[in-house]
Design goal:
Elements: E1 8-11, H1 15-26, E2 31-34, H2 43-46, E3 50-51, H3 57-76, E4 90-94, H4 97-110, E5 117-120, H5 121-127, E6 136-140, E7 144-145, H6 150-161, E8 165-167, E9 172-176, E10 181-186, E11 189-192, E12 195-198, H7 204-208, E13 217-227, E14 236-239, E15 268-275, E16 278-284, H8 296-304, E17 315-326, E18 332-335, E19 342-346, H9 352-368
Helix pairs in contact: 1-6, 1-9, 3-9
Length: 385
């Protein structure tokens, strides 16, 4: 039997839901978090393992806030979580020197703190010997390496220490009565709550609006291969024109010939993130749930054009996840417009671990009525209708 009705029920045990639970409980509210399977079972535990600048002016502030929250988490975590003191650095790699200069100039003008630097030839080879010799790179001072599920597990632990209840294997829905969220529905039973936060990633719209009329977020599937590279790069490495659009929205001109020469590779792009014991090779941007094992050859083909050793590196494991991608690429943070007491925080796309904690702090400030800043219009729940 459930205990007393909590002040807030949260649906979703990813990085956003666990951070929201931790912050609300820290503020003195009673919190119960419901997760359908396990903490970090989705994208929060199956990502490539890097907290990274999202290349977007609105989301950049969420990234900055998230880094601040990770620093705080590192001082209070009993789980051994700690964000590295300095970023590993990110290399945006390609074969067009003029384009690399354009990208570096854009970063210098927009985010000078990332300290963009162009590298090629012997200088790039000395820095990262595993890269193909004909590449040119823009190095950015960003990219904190974090084991995929570590941050979410740490926030879940903090939520529990702050007094939140975490209930796993709970397939729930939002319970409403006369235009108000009154709790969560578990089977035929309603478990009451003062308000409800839906932080269920790509499954959020179905929970908020079972009729199907509100669907601004959809799942875009990413496949990542863990491979054993004898000489892994020290930096995170990505294609300079990495394209996070799903394959059904890509045009042939989106895919430079120098990067992707095989039509079978549409929907595949290149990233390589070093990690303890293996490196994360990604990734795909697919509209249908994939069989991860069927994508290893495409990942190898694309990846080996940048890091030749990828072609024959031993495969350690495959994983996939559904990224919650909104129509404009930005998350929804705030109050549901038509249901009193219902709050939403979802749609972070591939930037969940990079921007989720900052989003959660914004939402909690709004719910508590003391937000230091208003929710930007670009994150408003009703912005897309």
């Amino acid at each position: 039997m459930p205990g007393p009705a909590p002040d807030v029920a949260i649906i979703g045990g990813g990085i956003v839901g666990t951070a929201t639970a931790a912050f609300l409980a820290e503020a003195g509210l009673s919190v119960r978090l419901y997760e359908r399977t396990a903490i970090a079972a989705g994208a929060s535990g199956r990502n490539s393992g890097i907290v990274q600048h999202p290349f977007d002016p609105v989301m950049a502030d969420l990234y900055r806030r998230s880094v601040e929250e990770y620093r705080r988490l590192g001082t209070s975590s009993d789980d051994g979580f700690r964000l590295p003191d300095e970023p590993a650095g990110l290399l945006l790699v390609g074969r067009d020197a003029d384009h690399a200069r354009e990208v570096a100039d854009q970063w210098a003008a927009t985010w000078p703190g990332t300290r963009p630097e162009i590298l090629s030839g012997s200088a790039l080879h000395a820095l990262e010997p595993s890269l193909a010799r004909d590449l040119v790179a823009v190095r950015l001072e960003i990219g904190f390496l974090v084991a995929p599920a570590a941050a979410t597990d740490a926030f879940a632990g903090l939520a529990r220490r702050n007094g939140a209840e975490v209930r796993l294997e709970s397939d729930v829905g939002v319970a409403t009565d006369d235009g108000r969220a009154v709790g969560v529905r578990v089977g035929d039973t309603v478990e009451a709550a003062g308000s409800v936060v839906v932080a269920a990633g790509p499954w959020t719209p179905a929970l908020v609006d079972p009729s199907g009329s509100w669907r601004p977020i959809r799942p875009i599937w990413g496949v990542v291969a863990s491979i054993d590279l004898a000489r892994a790069p020290r930096h995170g490495v990505e294609a300079i024109d990495i394209n996070i659009e799903p394959e059904d929205r890509r045009r042939p001109t989106d895919d430079p010939v120098s990067v992707r020469a095989d039509a079978a590779d549409v929907g595949v792009d290149f990233s390589l993130i070093p990690a303890a014991g293996s490196s994360a090779l990604g990734s795909t941007f697919l509209t249908d749930e994939p069989d991860p094992g069927q994508w290893i050859e495409a990942l190898r083909r694309v990846g080996s054009r940048y890091v030749p050793a990828v072609a024959a590196a031993p495969l350690v494991a495959m994983r996939s996840c559904a990224r919650p991608v909104s129509r404009d690429g930005r998350p929804f943070v705030g109050r549901a417009p038509s249901v009193h007491g219902l709050w939403l925080i979802a749609g972070h796309g591939p930037w969940g671990i990079s921007t989720g904690p900052g989003s959660a702090r914004l939402l909690v400030e709004l719910m508590r009525g003391g937000g230091r800043d208003p929710i930007p219009a670009a994150l408003a729940v009703d912005r897309l209708g």
